[in-house]
Amino acid sequence: MSTNTTTMDVFAKNDKISNIWLILTLLVSLFGLYGLFSVLINGHEAYGVTRTVPWGILISTYVFFVVSSTGLCLVSSMGHVFGIENFEVIGKRSIILAIFTLLCGFGVIALELGHPFRMMIYNVISPNFASAIWWMGTLYGIYLVFIIIEFYFLMNHNHKGAFYAGLGGFLAGISAHSNLGAVFGLLEARPFWHGPYLPIYFILSALISGSALIIIIFFVAYRSPSNMPEKVVKVLKSITKIFGFLIGILIFFDIWKVITSIYGAPPEKFEAVQTLLSGQLGVNFWLFEIALGMLIPFFIIIFTKGKNIKASLVAAISAVIGIFYMRYDLVIAGQLVPMREPAPGAHVQGALPNGLVSYTPSFTEISIVIGAIAFCAFLYLMAEKYLNLNEE
Amino acid sequence: MSENSRALKLAEANQKLANKRKGAKEKWGIVLDTSKCIDCKACTVACKMENYVPVGFYNYRIWVAEDTHYAKYPTVNRSFQPSQCQQCENPPCVHVCPTHASYKTADGVIMVDADKCILCKYCMTACPYDARYESHTTEAIDKCTFCYQRREEGKDPACVETCPPKVRVFGDLNDPNSEASRLLAENEYTVLKPEKGTRPKLKYIK
Amino acid sequence: MSLLKTKLNRRKFLAYSGGTLAAGAMASKFSTIKAVASEHSSRSNSSESKNVPSACAICVNMCSLFADVKDGVIHKLNPNHNFFKSRSMLCARGNAGAKVPYDPDRLKKPLIRAGERGEGKWKEVSWEEAYDYIVKNVMKLIDKYDNRSSIAFASTEGLQEEFFRHLTSIVGSTNSVRHPTLCLASNIQGYSSVFGTFPDADIANAKFVVMAGSNRAEAFITPDTIDLAKNHKEQTFVYLDPRATKSTALADKWFPIKPGTDMAVVLAMINIIISENLYDKEFVDKYTHGFKELANHVKQYTPEWAAKESEVPASEIKWMARKFAENAPASVWYPGRRSSFTANDVYYRRACGILNAVVGAWDRKGGLIPKSGISLKSHEFIFPLYDRVKNRIDGGKVDFAGEVLPEYIKSNKGMPKDKVAYLSESDGSWVLFRDAILKQKPYPVKGMFIYKQNPVESIPNRAKTIEMLKSMEFTCAIDIQMSDAAWYADVVLPESTYLERWDPAHNYGGAAPIVLFRKQAIKPLFDTKPMKDITVDLAERFLKEDDFWTDAWEEDKGYLQEYVDTFKNNSMEKIIEHQVSGHPGAFKMLMEKGCFYETDKIPYGQTLKEGARLKTKSGKIELASVRYPEAGLHALPVYQKPSEAPEGKYRFVVGRHAQFTQANTQNVPYLLEAYGHYENMLWIHPKSALKQGLNDGDYAIVKSSVGEQKVKVHVTEYTRPDTVFYLHGFGRLSKWLSNIYKVGASDAEILEDYAETISGNALLHETFVEIKKA
To answer: Which of A22, C275, C309, C498 could form a disulfide with C264 if both were Cys (CB 3.0 to 4.6 A apart)?
Structure first.
């Protein structure tokens, strides 16, 4: 493998990316500056999180980003780590987006944490090996290093290097990601989250996110299937089929999650799932999570037998939107059942007459989320425009 | 000196004290007889004064809630449930804290090292009792510390000391002769959410 | 009677009554001290103090405490574990007191009104300017009306109140008016007519307690509250109240009694106890007077009749009576405190006292116990004796006295119509007093000094109080916050808060008396003075005004100078030392332990000894009163049916929550959040809410014949369907009470201004209101 890369190999202008999109995404991400300044000036009071719902849309957006990142890495590792030749072509694009989504996720979490810089210090000098967040944070840090190295090797056509870095990324990614699931799953206080389900579900979810995003970014790169090389079309069809297959499994997972939360009305689980089925998060759940996130993509892929890539794009976009809401629903539903009954004198924040609590994201939080997503898109478009992301 | 810095000073002093008391052998707990409670809220106000907890409806370390299950006219029988951080022997908040900011002292008190707290709020979602809150004076998580600063003077926590009918009895559960231990030996008692396995150190006498 | 003799009698009267309360051994007087001790009380080095002994001032219990002062800032107030009367506690309000000196809304500088009365425009002035204004206006009024009593002096209790009472004597007015007739005057009167004194209840040792209308869990936290709570497992506690207050948490039984009918239950219980021969015959024979008349009188009050009146089941009344007798002498019908309920209260309280007496539960363990005190050395200041003084406006014969009675009681033969039978010379009767001022009968009262009290929110019919204040030509308020009364004043003087001053030792009488005092915890934060300094300063000013002395005797100026010198030359610490000098070791104990007492054990049986005499006319426990018939009152407790609610209206009752003291502390944010709401709410039973079309959280207009208020609705099972309530002290008119200015509803605005004419006590539960959705 030649390691003599020329500038021509690294940088290449992709005229299919119009400047209009670049400017648009940049402007929308500037919208996020409102939120940034709001929290810098007013502190965390600018957020809608409460004592009873301490994790809000910023956490769910972080989860959305890192799950996407991990998914991208996992799907692309089928090529560079596990040697499925078809998949090698998605390498650079997947990894660069994996890097950007992770960085944006870190950005969002930095704003969510009260003391992000302290974390970097005390995670190192005072680590708690029993803490799922510690493992998640540390492993994602390692993962980031690995995928950056992997990207470097990919750009230099160093396939051996890419293999090892990719393997490291794969392992770190899976561990970090299941630990993210464990962050929720290890809490006995929260029956809706507790158990081995979430670490497993997250991996499945990552694969779906990753597949969907890969389909999308290739359309961004080539504008239409007619511009795509044969290799690309082939891999996108494969990914679509995998994508559809995994959504089918996900639907199965979700059905059982709901049944086990309703059957016998297990305390706290039952009320939590009711917020999804018929409560505060009802629209989120049925319209976005189920319809957009699962049913529409699934049926599109079934009916097109995965052969229509344009239809896959629609499925992918629908799925990504749905997945964003899936993260939100998961994080919020687990907190809507308060730990104490909202009786007189209990001062349970956000209490509703039905005994649950409520959460509404504040304008600051929403602007940060929109800004982060737009900025991630902007970064990717910049990379797509100015870097050579095609495989030889 | 502002209220903020007083709160921080207290937090730091408590950290130092916890360090100093590394060899302590006590196991502090509180035994409550809530049938005496009249919901006068002396404890909640005393706590705020003693620990520089700022004004704010949801800034509080301890609370007194009403049990409204027996409120049907004309057979009303009101009853009240004071509570706070349970200072669990198996504390989920300590297990989950990434930086060991949340820790247990040698004598069984769960504290937050305000310097190390990154405000990830994992401990808040981990706590089954909604005992913790974000303090804008220490800029860290805050919760009941059994008024740890009073350990040196041998004084009871403010809520225990100020209570008119003495609902709470504070004491060393490792010492069979302490009033708290004797109350537990002589009475049936329950704890909150025993099924979570947290082994709380707030014991409610029946 | 020659003029000289009259003057001498008045002098003696003024000298002994100056600064004292009418009831009980609760006087604190000062001793003459040799000159030349330097004044240092306000300059004590409290910034280094760690634990300063003081006493709470948020309510009348004055629980002794230690102020934990760090770097010159009050950190916390801790209960004084030596002070057995507080049973080692400090309540929510007491704890919040640590923030009182730092309250952003407190008064910081003397103020003189710069706009219209009630407009709220103030000009900050120096103390000198304020004093000029006061002295000028006082003299102007005295001259204009040729009467020093044209200036009224309104106050409420406190360790510095006696200095305000001294000021009253210095100015020479007889029109002092205080809070007991908004509170417990009828209670004191009723029990005194039986026992000669208003007793304590030995709740700590009682086995059977009946508490009616008193809400020990939420009104003041007293030792009784604590003893009821601590002993609730061993004690049988029956609670009668139209509302299920938090006291039900301690009660074995709660009966939602029909308001105004408590007396029926008491009389029926006495009926049972006598008819079933359960009374203490030996005790009755030896210590009481009038049993035969009583026995005859109560025959008509059967439990079945009482059950119909009160809606407490007859079987329960019988059970209560039998248990009451069975547990005697450790049985008590709890006297309570505030008794300003319904018109017949004095007779009702008599009946309660009689109930305890017939079972011998008097001056014995677990029963009613007469109070005693610890004697402190006093100085008998001689205050000037003036000529241009008229008798108090609500004293003696008052033609319109009958007008304050509710209609239904006017036909009751035992209720005077032309005077208040037992008016206290120092306390007056606020409702009648205000009417007299408004009518300008028997003469105009056009000046008012108000210390610590807030008549605007404390007297029923707020509009009338404001009318009274507006009719004044001069009003001076002395307070720590801009109360609604101060809001309508012309000059406001800021007093130093209780933690910023030394206060004289005070004998707190009771079953087991104890002495407390205050040491300055921090130096005054702002330009404020204690009442003592204000009185001394004003005395000095008056001394300089020759025209002030035209109707006084020569030596009066000298006596006043002596008064001034006493306080100028002696620190409060020295004064306290002298006060307790009659008890060896007392001063040391005060300074170290924050309180002084000789024993914490109740000395039972002092009045049951051979030769002991009660302060009644017969010297015995008067089941049938001897002096009452002489005053035209019923000798025996005659039941009076309470007023019936007009169609579609509800009875409004007044009550408390444990987080607030009267109308005093609602502005404190710590207490508002402890209360759980930032405004008060109307308690209404679900059935009644349905009838009025109200839902929980709606706003309603509550309207009486004197006013209306808008208030949030709280639908609750905790009240009778015919009774509504909202908490006292909200809906305020002073903008400087920033958290409660026009927030919530004022009960003073809607309460009709009735009073009874035996003790002059206001009647706060005689108002019927209509309720509509807002």
So the answer is: C309
